[in-house]
Structure formats: structure tokens, C-alpha cells
Amino acid sequence: AQKVTQAQTEISVVEKEDVTLDCVYETRDTTYYLFWYKQPPSGELVFLIRRNSFDEQNEISGRYSWNFQKSTSSFNFTITASQVVDSAVYFCALSGGTNAGKSTFGDGTTLTVKP
Amino acid sequence: DVKVTQSSRYLVKRTGEKVFLECVQDMDHENMFWYRQDPGLGLRLIYFSYDVKMKEKGDIPEGYSVSREKKERFSLILESASTNQTSMYLCASSLPSGRGTDTQYFGPGTRLTVL
Fold first, then answer.
1. CA of A101 to nearest chain B CA: how many angstroms apart?
2. Neighbour-count burial for B79-115, b at 16+ CB within 10 Å, e otherwise
3. Per-residue pLDDT tens over the stretch B89-110
4. Among A33, A37, A45, beta carbon nearest to B101
5. pLDDT, tens digit, for every residue of B45-73?
6. How far, in Å, CA of A91 to CA of A110, rounded?
7. What are phi and psi of A45, to 5 degrees?
């Protein structure tokens, strides 16, 4: 069975601080996808990034960066110079292999960025 | 842009009522999902549909049923609403695994209160 653990339930930072959201996953499949979604206060989950299990290259998009390490089964998300608009619930998810078509979500991390 | 819409943002119903939550997507996706989101419990899959008239139970199907008569529309039905079904309900859609990457696109959510 697949499992995603987001150990940080809530994180609070002050604007301009860097913050890392942790995600640890479990799967026996060799082919899978990892995702991060953002859920702002409005409620709609928004897709941020997808990585497949064969691509461990880290990715940077503006202030966002993702670190995928198969050796530690982790897919961490870092926001550099956080802003108030980054305040949201962030979900890490896993799909593929025996769970193809469906995703297993972590419980989410609530990030609050204070001005 | 993928667009997933849900019939209501907020809904208040009484115990015992039959409740219909509607979801429509405009990207010709085969897969559609209904999730329930509760504080501290993340996203829990209620039902999954991989084609018209096809459905599969998720993790918490008890007390719910679904209908998929057309590809673009996926309905969640609460046959007899109870107070423990008060929650945020999220609909999502995606391409099938063979043609996509399991990325899910979410609607804005329906916050249901059962009195």
C-alpha cells in the first residue's frame, strides 16, 4: 500500500523567511508520481508540481523549489523569501504503480506567513 | 485550462434529506473523483469513476453513492444525510493513467452542513 506522511501539521513564519515543507512517502512500486498541491483559503486545490520516479533532478520555479531524494523517500518543498500569499494548506501526493489512476494524499501542512 | 465546477459552494441540509452534489469538468477526462476533507484527516477518497457508468469505491464509501451518466458529470449522492457528513466535499478529474500522469484538477469544493 502507498502512504504519504507530512509530519508538520502547521508551520508559522514571518514574511521573507525561507520555509521547507517535508514529505515522506512509502511505496513498493518502481514507477510512480509525486505531486504537490496548494489549497489557499478559497478552498480549491491547485496543482504545483509533478515528478516521476525516474527523474530525481531538483526543480526550481521562481521562489519555489523541490528536492526529490529516492534514497530517503522524500519529496520536500521549499519556499524562499515567503510572502503572505503563500499562506495555504499544502498537500503532498503519490500515485502510480498498483495505485494507478488514483492518488494517496498526505494530511497536509498548514503554512501561515505573517507580515 | 482545465475547469472543474461544483454546483454549490455552500449547502445546508437537514438530517434525513437526500442530497445531490454535482461536478462537471470540461476537459474530456475519463477519471473523476469525490473526496471528503476534514480537519486533521486530509483528503479521503469516497468514490472514483474511470468511465461513464463505471465506479469504484474509495476509502470511505459508506453512506454515499455516485452516478456517472455522462463523461463530463459526476454526482455524489447522500441518500439520507446525517450530521457526521458535515464536511468539505471536493471533486477532481484526470486523464487515465495510460494517457496521463495522474495529475488531478480540482473543483472549488462544496461545504456541506447537515443540521
1. 5
2. eebeeebebbbbbbbbbebeeeebbbbbbbbbbbebe
3. 999 999 876 666 788 999 999 9
4. A33
5. 999 999 999 999 999 999 999 999 999 99
6. 9
7. -70, 135
